[in-house]
Design brief:
Elements: H1 6-24, H2 28-32, H3 48-59, H4 72-84, H5 95-116, H6 138-149, H7 162-174, H8 185-195, E1 215-216, E2 222-223, H9 230-242, H10 263-273, E3 291-292, E4 298-302, E5 307-311, E6 314-316, E7 326-327, E8 337-340
Antiparallel strand pairs: 1-2, 3-8, 4-5, 4-8, 5-6, 6-7
Helix pairs in contact: 3-5, 6-8, 9-10
């Protein structure tokens, strides 16, 4: 080698070793932090947990671009939130601010759901409350299913609308009851006696699923299509096990069997049931899962703030669950990355 190039080569080797050393000594907290609260966040920080912070600020009413960089606007909004929550206003997101953000966003989401669905109630079983026009909920779905079993075809959508009221009146008239369209104990008793299939529970449902498309039962569980691959049947069976479990932020990420599940925890659990995933992913993780685009059997929709999926034509989603995550109505996929398990 020419002596002219030897110093250049030595300087190049030195630069490479310095770069490798810098990467090795990077703070572990920056590299490992995945969830909001794993570390205290300051202006200038970057990472997935910063994106989650920005999403939570937005959901709490403080619109913040989700860029993954803790810049001046994020700092201003953190201070605004801290001030509104009577926290120390230092712009640092520690455990206290992270917890307050989770509580604030959960309350805001619950308030929005109540405003959007004022007729919904906590009732789980038909007969727990008197049903009338304008009400919504799982027990309304069961009522509609029982009317159909009794020979009066009624769409099962969980909304006690004019069509359901008219069919209740038809049923009442045919069975010698006062035809007022109100479902009280007497109407429930006769409905159950006539419409019961199999067991005495709300979930008695012996009819087969159609080919290629899952069917939603009145109890909120799903029936896998007869021609579905084993993996899809496993996903649906797992989804049924947690279909009505409560929403818990972070639920399902520390353990497969949890008291409640958040959006990505729910999707992870169901996919695990079909042996399609072996570790829990958060919503951002699902943005790179599997293959691009819609799948034949499963399509996953994910962004920084939410994840849900469509399995054999049924939506599995914590958003809109009433009370089941399985839903027959679809939602817009705008703003989501669309993925699917490879081959499905």
């Amino acid at each position: 080698m020419s002596p002219v190039f030897a110093p250049v080569r030595r300087r190049l080797h030195l630069a490479i070793w310095i770069a490798l050393l810098a990467a090795a000594l990077a703070p572990a907290s920056v590299l490992a932090a995945q969830h909001l609260g794993d570390r205290a966040l300051h202006e200038g920080d970057r990472g997935h947990d910063v994106r989650v912070l920005q999403d939570f600020l937005t959901r709490a009413g403080y619109a913040t671009p989700i860029a993954g960089v803790f810049g001046p606007q994020t700092l201003r909004n953190v201070k605004r939130f801290q001030r509104a929550q009577h926290l120390g206003v230092d712009g640092v997101v520690g455990a206290g601010t992270a917890k307050a953000l989770r509580i604030a966003t959960a309350r805001r989401a619950a308030a929005k759901q109540r405003a959007a669905d004022p007729g919904a109630g906590p009732s789980q079983h038909m007969g727990d409350r008197t049903l009338r026009k304008g009400m919504r909920g799982h027990d309304v779905r069961v009522l509609q299913d029982y009317l159909t079993r009794a020979g009066i075809a009624t769409p099962v959508d969980g909304v006690f609308g004019p069509g359901t009221k008219a069919n209740v009146k038809r049923f009442q008239r045919a069975n010698g009851l006062t035809a007022d369209g109100i479902v009280g104990p007497s109407t429930v008793q006769i409905l159950r006696r006539i419409g019961e299939v199999g067991s005495a529970g709300d979930s008695g449902d012996a009819s087969p699923a159609p080919i290629g498309h899952a069917r939603l039962r009145a109890d909120g569980t799903a029936v896998a299509p007869a021609d579905a691959p084993a993996a899809i049947k496993g996903v649906i069976a797992a989804g049924n096990r947690i279909a009505t479990k409560p929403y818990v932020y972070g639920g399902g990420h520390g353990t497969w069997n949890d008291n409640g599940y958040d959006c990505s925890g729910s999707v992870s659990y169901a996919l695990h049931g079909g042996s399609l995933i072996n570790t829990q992913l958060d919503s951002t993780g699902f943005e790179s899962y599997g293959s691009r685009g819609r799948g034949r059997w499963i399509t996953i929709y994910a962004n920084a703030g939410h994840a849900y999926m469509v399995v054999a034509g049924l939506r599995f989603d914590t958003s809109g669950a009433s009370p089941s995550r399985w839903q027959s109505d679809m939602r817009s996929g705008d703003g989501y990355v669309v993925r699917h398990p490879s081959g499905l």
